[in-house]
Specification:
single chain, mainly beta, 4-stranded antiparallel β-sheet
Length: 209
């Protein structure tokens, strides 16, 4: 993953163990970040995002969401109590990661999670989420998060709690928003993974993408 400034995240294997890694745009080499103390060679790490200010990286480690503060060199397991799995897909300049969490009580049920090491864990759209998959794919620095819930694209303002779940265009079964910037939200709709079509939304378009 790469941000708008050219900062990048990835992974590097060190002594058989996968580590998060990042390369800031003004640096020539990749920097290896730490892992949880109980990491083993069979544990996985997936990197998803670096904040626009190049300070925070987020992803999934041992099937748990995490954030790493490049400035303080602090690694934080963001998985809330009573949950078993999760992932951080996007992180903003305040270190807030978004993605999903799963209590794994009776099958897969990914719930929409907003995670910050300095704030209480927050779930959103709990009245609309259904098994199996609900995801927040992106958070911007104005507190707008986007993703999919109940197989439909949504946007949610964390500062005002205003949200909208968008209708799918005729002929499509599922859809998702993947990213937002300057009021423009982009994503896709599909019947199968092999036939995705792009969608774009701005409030000037009306109520729907």
């Amino acid at each position: 993953n790469i941000n708008a400034n050219g900062d990048m995240v990835g992974t590097i294997i060190v002594d058989g163990i996968v580590h998060p890694a990042y390369k800031l745009v003004n640096e020539s080499a990749w920097t290896i970040a730490p892992v949880f103390s109980n990491m083993t060679a069979s544990d996985g790490v997936t990197m998803y995002s670096i904040s626009q200010n190049g300070r925070y990286i987020t992803g999934q480690m041992q099937a748990k969401p995490f954030v790493y503060d490049i400035q303080t060199q602090e690694l934080t397991n963001l998985l809330p109590s009573d949950y078993v799995y999760g992932a951080g897909y996007s992180v903003n300049n305040e270190g807030t990661s978004v993605g999903w969490v799963d209590a794994a009580v009776s099958g897969t049920f990914r719930e929409l999670g907003v995670m910050n090491k300095n704030l209480p864990f927050r779930k959103i759209l709990t009245d609309y989420a259904i098994p199996v998959n609900n995801h927040i794919w992106h958070i911007d620095d104005n507190g707008l998060v986007v993703g999919e819930v109940n197989l439909k694209p949504f946007s949610y303002n964390l500062n005002t709690d205003e949200f909208k779940i968008y209708d799918l265009p005729a002929g499509y079964r599922t859809g998702s928003f993947q990213s937002s910037s300057n009021g423009i939200i982009v994503g896709y709709v599909q019947n199968m993974v092999t036939d995705r079509d792009a969608i774009i939304y701005h409030e000037s378009f009306g109520d729907q993408p």
